[in-house]
Fold:
Amino acid sequence: MTKQQANWSPYDNNGGTCVAIAGADYCVIAADTRMSTGYSILSRDYSKIIQLADKSLMASSGFQADVRALQKVLAARHLIYQHQHNKQMSCPAMAQLLSNTLYYKRFFPYYAFNVLGGLDSEGKGCVFTYDAVGSYERVGYSSQGSGATLITPFLDNQLKSPSPLLLPAKDAVTPLSESEAIDLVKTCFASASERDIYTGDKLEIVILNASGIRREYLELRKD
Amino acid sequence: MFRNQYDTDVTTWSPAGRLFQVEYAMEAVKQGSAAIGLRSKTHVVLACVNKASSELSSHQKKIFKVDDHIGVAIAGLTADGRVLSRYMRNECINYSYTYESPLPVGRLVVQLADKAQVCTQRSWKRPYGVGLLIGGLDESGAHLYYNCPSGNYFEYQAFAIGSRSQAAKTYLERKFETFVDSSRENLIKDALFALRETLQGEKLTSSNCTIAVLGIGEAFSTLDQETVQRLINEFEVVGEDPPAEASAAPDQSDGAEPGPAAAAAAAAADDDDQETPAADQGAAPMDI
Amino acid sequence: MNNLIGSDADSQRTLYPYVTGTSVVGIKYKDGILLAADMGGSYGSTLRYKTVERMKSVGKHSIIGASGEISDFQEIMRYLDELILYDNMWDDGNSFGPKEVHNYLTRVMYNRRNKFNPLWNSLVLGGVKNGQKYLGTVNMIGVHYEDNHVATGFGNHLSRPILRDEWHENLTFEEGVKLLEKCMRVLLYRDRSAVNKLQIAKITEEGVTISQPYSLKTFWNFAAFQNPTVGAEGSW
Structure:
């Protein structure tokens, strides 16, 4: 019998785009809900955003099985943290944990591209952006996933954040108000779904501020 | 030289068919400050007495959250209790990692009992010196279990362990039939009253007790001090001296169920010299 | 024998499937879940087996349907039967529902892919427990999701567009079967591995029923079927 399958790969790319924007007292984190494989859509309503702690949210794209495994590891680690410390993990602490968890699998990586958003211990919005093996940086805004190449330059242009090379360092948070940031995110995804076939169906936006957590949805292109 | 020929090793039987080391471990449970548990159809309440070992120290934590749906109150060696609590927390985390659903309480209790049992059958181990009241909720309802160092476990409607727990047990035995349909508040109230019985004259305040609740739609949590104090005031539990009926605790002639076990516990409760658990009298205390 | 590609131990791995089943289609309907799968077992492009049961019950509350390597599916059934046996042995009023089984399967599939030794299947898991309908899927590398309708293999290409058009929450049993038969008929026409002998499985709060094998009415007299190259100049 001749071999009919292409060489087996442990990875797949299930697509999807994530965006997070940090403001002075809020954080907006968003992702589309499409899950694809190749040219097929597997699900039009698969949430890529999870709440890891009271004040940290993670949006992830890439290989769904790895993403889910990563989410479960972090959830379990956070439970252990709560048992040991009797409190919720802070967003910067979760950021370090995420980095360590990714690097732990440096030589068989989680194929996951994450943005972590939340509020730091002063209540300021924070965004951490990662590569698949755990390098990370605190930034004012970030985009990851299949639509990142379309969205990142647009955000760079709109948010005109201070150069990270400036000394002394400037605050990374964006100057936008919460509602401006939400509108910007909507524009980003409406645009990305025009060109990126892996982005679409629905946009899920999670807004975190002092008064708690809130969700908004926006329908996107379904083709 | 030795008080007993058969008590130097956990795995050595006495001719009477007893394992003294295991029974001594059960004694450790009776020495610890009291812990009680009671349940209705929908809720479980755990409560314990906090005793500081010295004027200068704080008390040790005796109630632990295992998961949202399971909590535990301990009496005996707190250090052993913490180890077992950590084991249970791990089991819960691993189970929900695999199945994304909560570990059924009864199954955790059996795993824990099996773990305790191993220590009664290995020459290089010692039994855990702690009794655990495990309260939990699963699809078959609310449960309360008692796990002891021998590896035995029992399910209860209400139970008390630790020093002077007989008084609380008497209170609970008198009222347990009402618990099934009890409200959350009434369950806490009965917990406080039962707890007061173990104090024998000492005043019940929010600083010498801990109360924890879990139930349908309510994750396990220990009540904060202000809430406990408010409840104590509200129910007027304080009472310097216990009511007459309650102080007659060890009288169990009317008790329907208290068997030799309760008698053994009662005997031990106020007994200073417990090292010789009267080798030949009554059933082995392991039965409880 | 060792070489650069791998040792003897590596030859234990499934590098490609031998006997395979094609699509499984599943939908939620008013009272529960319906699954459909044909009974062909292909050896490459040879139709090697014609009575392969690709849907099985898992305990009281779940059913599983499998496409891909049949031997791996039978291995999975051994895991699941053991899981359910041990669950029943507790005899304590708790039992695994479809959600638990689906999560367990996902862990099994993902762990095997982590060991570069996959179970070569796409699985559909359906069930009802405590009035809650559940329908999910997982594949050989651990990708999994829940939906109102799912399909594996060609089913994802050919059936799901139909389901997206015609599926709704309140399908009756008869409507559900009709819809699945429509999907299976399209697959039969266009998926060369599909055979005209299928089963439909139903799960409700009352339990599992898997139908006897039966076949669909087909119509092959379309002009395009009889002379596919007519009107396509230069084609052979």
